[in-house]
Write a structure and sequence with these properties.
Radius of gyration: 19 Å
Structural class: mainly alpha
Helix content: over 70%
Oligomer: single chain
Largest sheet: none
């Protein structure tokens, strides 16, 4: 499996476009948008997964407070979430699995947004368990951030359905 994010592929796309072999600027825009969307999601999920892994005890603690009386469930979720985020990163890295990665990232973002709504309604005083700089956002800021990510994720799925021509993938 070769990643579409390689320098060679980026140069090939630019070369085809500058030589006039790709005449459809809408195609280039869609392709570039999907690449940027995937890169943003890869950075986001790699960052949050590694933050949760590095400070696993802190992440698990917040989940214990969120799910009172369910220590075993919170402990399992504290491992499942970063693993799912790492899986999203791996799926998004490769052209062959990118659509699955976009759908899984959309599912996770939807779940996280639902969780944020729950936190606002029922657990206002608890800290965010996202990890890193993202956990410094207020709950409303976090929901807006997640809704923005959901919107670009959906657009990435829509634009991805227009496949990259085979000759552009080395």
């Amino acid at each position: 499996m070769e990643s579409l994010f390689s320098i060679e592929n980026f140069i090939a796309v630019i070369a085809y476009w500058t030589r006039g072999e790709i005449h459809d600027k809408k195609f280039m825009t869609r392709n570039l948008y999907t690449e940027i969307t995937s890169a943003v999601l890869i950075l986001l999920f790699a960052y949050t997964a590694s933050s949760k892994t590095i400070d696993h005890a802190g992440f698990e603690n917040v989940l214990f407070m969120t799910i009172p009386g369910h220590r075993k469930g919170a402990s399992a979720i504290a491992w499942l979430i970063p693993v799912a985020e790492y899986i999203v990163v791996l799926l998004l890295l490769f052209q062959q699995t990118r659509m699955k990665g976009l759908y899984l990232s959309l599912l996770l973002l939807g779940f996280f947004t639902f969780y944020l709504g729950y936190m606002i309604l029922f657990k206002k005083g608890l800290p965010c368990s996202c990890g890193g700089v993202i956990s410094k956002m207020s709950w409303p800021q976090h929901i807006i951030f997640n809704l923005f990510l959901i919107a670009i994720n959906i657009a990435g799925i829509v634009f991805y359905k227009r496949k990259v021509p085979a000759k552009l993938i080395t």
